[in-house]
Fold LLM class F420-dependent oxidoreductase.
Amino acid sequence: MRISTTVFMTDQTIGPVRLARALEERGFAGLYLPEHTHIPVSRESPYPGGVLPPECGRMLNPFVALAQAAAVTERLGLGTNITLVAQHDPIDLAKQIATLDHLSGGRLTLGIGYGWNREEAEDHGVDWARRRALVRESMAVMRALWADEPTAYEGELRGVRASEAYPKPVRAPRRRKSGPPLYGPRTLIGAPAGPAGFARIAAYADGWMPVGGSGLGTSLPALRAAWADAGRDPDDLYVALSAVEPSAGKLAHYRESGVDEVILQLPPAGEREVMGVLDAYARHLT
């Protein structure tokens, strides 16, 4: 089981270069960064965790920060948890993702999700009620651009002409029972457990990225059943738990449950505090 980290990285916290080097030196598997473009002051959307962390309004762009991390490491995995796909132009986002994956030698994992902040999404022109469909069609646009040959996609909400688009992501395409192969980096959907969410994961992703690991005894069998119903290869399913506070017993339970990766939560703090927590977490690597 891989052990990685995540942090709300801002203009006031440890930066990507120092953190990435420290992670690779200690043997951690990866660094994941979340995304918010802005947090409207006038907001009715409740934050899922209760009180909105002030760091949400100060986050660095994850792709820029991860590019810095890639430049100073050789093995460290790079990921988003999560990219708010509906808030991006998918053609431009496809280029950013493919470029980072190409320059890092295929080290990128793309965590995607639907968001919780309606006001933020609406500032991007997102119809909140249709955001899940928008994410699905945006992923289809990006995969058309990542395909080996010029490929068109025309959906109800998004589309792209058959185009020359380079670079290509490094990961090999994954086959499905129906539909074209899934091109691009490993893509994990961050969503609560449930039949609808698991059906989406099986339809157009490579796995699941929930927050924490509660209820795995029932959720993982349900996810695997949805995966099998979609005709997906069982070996292709990937499960990464995000924002975990570790303990030896907890990590052992996740490993025994068949979890592929655990992403430990670091504090949104300066170098000294983060390094202290990182050294404490490193004890779980052996």
About this structure: The first strand starts at residue 2 and ends at 6. The beta strands are 2-6, 30-33, 77-84, 108-113, 153-154, 159-160, 186-189, 207-208, 238-244, 261-265. The two ends are 11 Å apart (CA to CA).
